[in-house]
User: Which sequence fits this backbone?
């Protein structure tokens, strides 16, 4: 060919500043575009060879090179793919690539949300001008008798074409980086970017620096990428060690995952990947999950909510979905039937895995539960289908350190019209109540994590005639000793007197008081909290009200235990004018102890309580000393 100069058919001057600005936050996408082009060029060549339309060398190995020349300030991408003839350069580069950029701008200009466009930007080759003063191409087509072509442009409307001295089939794109983009000469940074998008590209990528370091030395070349990610391997042939290693490598998490699911399907659509259940160090870790989406082994993005059910984003994994229509907008994806099928399939796979673990290794499943419960609960609340598949294997940790399903927990209440699940929402604050339950051989489950107030509400909405009741709320029914209950008249009389006495002693006119004969004799009184108002307060905490718990006061009832002789004695003392002050002293003390059982006393009350305790000791020793 003879030397040729020309003008590009579009007004690139207008486009240029817009694209540059738009790309500012994601400058490195030009690398993705150029390497993608090289990978496409190799795929096309392989396809043609398979059809018998191109001849490959016997020792052909697909290869992409990223070459840095710090002296010349150039960054080049070289491949041994299909190459281009001069006609093709005219067509694909001069016309298509540049008009592609124009289409792109027309479509997306003004959209501030980069996330509108997934993965493929359609900006292609043109994006190389975002970082370059000048871009050149040296290419030799696979076609027999083709001549190599050199093309060059500075990103304005002018280009130049002439013969090239390239001898090998394939394409070399060289960018003379502009002064604002010198960071792309940093091989460490380049390696990071290439790894981000192409860690699992099926063709080997090599990073080279010119002049080569350690010249003359015998070298073994190692590609930057892993051309055979584990998800492509048949699950039957993968070892646990390989799964763990892959997890460490991809997520740079040194902890081992709990377990994993290998997805490997070809029909009715193509999807491969591995999803891991990470170990949680604390509850808030859950938000740090990561599902990486790939398209034919090229990374697209992390955590695309439109493709992956939201609750699965708490897990970690890689999913390769070559059938995804990735060059479309997110809003379109949401309505795509294919995407819904992917979502449904992953949900089913995860539920199946949990069911399998539960059935085959209940012990192991119980051990995992502390790590996986936020995920399972969140999943149930988010996806009806997931709930339907796992509702029978939701387990609850009990105060006896066992893990039981709801059916197992409710077994002793079989035949009862309304069933109750007693739960602990704070193991420290409710320690006394737990002890009381244990002493009476009763069981309660522990639901003390952030998600649990929501989960309890959710479960009640799903279950007919099952109520969740906190261990410090309305439990008198569970621990009442029916055999010891006094006559109704006597009980009414006692209640009237006790109400008067304890309201006066606690200085609270509206204190709710009840009298019961409890199975447990040791405790004179306990405080019960109204379940509804307590739940309201818990919920307000999860919505950020941690500052003032008194904003939502919780209704309390002081339950006096008639099985403990102290209560009747105090009531009797109260009726004796001479002993009234002693009765008030003792009643106030009993009340304070009951309150202390489930929460801290406010500072003023605490100071008084200590004063009273000291007085009590003094009274005790004084009587002892007098009688001695
Ligand atoms: N390394 C290469 N080897 C062979 N042909 C190439 C190479 N790079 C670009 N081309 C040709 O130039 C065309 C335009 O490239 P460009 O990157 O602008 O768009 P695209 O790859 O077709 O689309 P998009 O990047 O939007 O997915 C390509 O379709 C291809 O035919």
Assistant:
């Amino acid at each position: 060919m003879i030397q040729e100069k020309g003008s590009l058919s579009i007004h690139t001057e207008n486009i240029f500043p817009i694209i540059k600005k738009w790309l500012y936050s994601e400058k490195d996408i030009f690398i993705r575009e150029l390497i993608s082009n090289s990978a496409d060029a190799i795929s096309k060549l392989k396809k043609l060879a398979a059809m018998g339309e191109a001849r490959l060398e016997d020792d052909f190995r697909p290869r992409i090179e990223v070459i840095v020349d710090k002296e010349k300030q150039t960054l080049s991408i070289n491949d041994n793919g299909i190459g281009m003839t001069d006609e093709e350069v005219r067509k694909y580069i001069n016309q298509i690539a540049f008009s592609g950029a124009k289409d792109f701008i027309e479509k997306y200009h003004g959209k501030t949300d980069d996330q509108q466009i997934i993965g493929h930007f359609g900006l292609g080759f043109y994006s190389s001008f975002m970082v370059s003063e000048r871009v050149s191409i040296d290419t030799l087509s696979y076609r027999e008798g083709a001549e190599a072509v050199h093309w060059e442009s500075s990103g304005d409307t002018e280009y130049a074409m002439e013969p090239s001295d390239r001898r090998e089939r394939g394409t070399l794109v060289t960018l003379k980086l502009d002064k604002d983009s010198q960071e792309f000469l940093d091989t460490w940074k380049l390696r990071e970017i290439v790894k981000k998008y192409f860690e699992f590209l099926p063709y080997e990528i090599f990073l080279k620096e010119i002049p080569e370091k350690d010249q003359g030395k015998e070298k073994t070349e190692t590609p930057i990428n892993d051309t055979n990610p584990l998800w492509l391997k048949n699950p039957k042939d993968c070892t646990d060690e390989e799964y763990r290693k892959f997890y460490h490598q991809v997520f740079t998490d040194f902890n081992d995952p709990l377990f994993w699911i290998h997805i490997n399907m070809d029909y009715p659509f193509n999807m491969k990947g591995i999803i891991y259940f990470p170990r949680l160090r604390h509850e808030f870790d859950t938000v740090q999950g990561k599902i990486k989406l790939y398209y034919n082994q090229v990374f697209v993005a992390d955590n695309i909510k439109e493709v992956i059910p939201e609750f699965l984003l708490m897990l970690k994994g890689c999913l390769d979905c070559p059938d995804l229509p990735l060059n479309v907008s997110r809003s379109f994806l949401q309505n795509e039937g294919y995407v819904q099928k992917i979502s449904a399939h992953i949900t089913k796979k995860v539920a199946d895995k949990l069911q399998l673990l539960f059935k085959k290794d209940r012990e192991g499943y119980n051990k995992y539960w502390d790590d996986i419960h936020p995920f399972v609960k969140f999943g149930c609340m988010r996806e009806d289908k997931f709930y339907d598949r796992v509702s029978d294997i939701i387990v609850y940790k009990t105060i006896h350190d066992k893990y039981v399903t709801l059916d197992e927990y409710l077994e002793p209440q079989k035949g009862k019209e309304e069933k109750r699940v007693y739960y602990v929402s704070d193991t420290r604050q409710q320690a006394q109540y737990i002890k009381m339950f244990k002493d009476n051989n009763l069981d309660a489950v522990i639901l003390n994590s952030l998600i649990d107030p929501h989960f309890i509400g959710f479960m009640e909405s799903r279950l007919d005639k099952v109520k969740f009741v906190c261990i410090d709320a309305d439990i008198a029914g569970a621990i009442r000793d029916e055999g010891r209950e006094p006559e109704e008249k006597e009980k009414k009389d006692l209640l009237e007197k006790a109400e008067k006495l304890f309201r006066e002693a606690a200085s609270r006119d509206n204190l709710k008081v009840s009298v019961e004969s409890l199975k447990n004799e040791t405790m004179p009184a306990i405080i019960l909290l109204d379940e509804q108002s307590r739940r309201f307060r818990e919920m307000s905490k999860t919505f950020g009200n941690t500052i003032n718990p008194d904003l939502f006061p919780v209704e309390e009832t002081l339950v006096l235990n008639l099985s403990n002789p102290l209560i009747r004695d105090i009531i009797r003392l109260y009726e004796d004018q001479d002993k009234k002050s002693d009765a008030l002293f003792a009643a106030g003390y009993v009340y304070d102890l009951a309150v202390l059982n489930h929460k801290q006393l406010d500072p003023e009350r605490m100071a008084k309580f200590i004063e009273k305790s000291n007085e009590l000791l003094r009274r005790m020793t004084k009587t002892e000393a007098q009688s001695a």
About this structure: Confidence is low (pLDDT under 50) at residues 112-121. The domain at 480-627 is CATH 1.20.120.790 (Four Helix Bundle (Hemerythrin (Met), subunit A)). DSSP finds 18 helices and 21 strands in the chain.
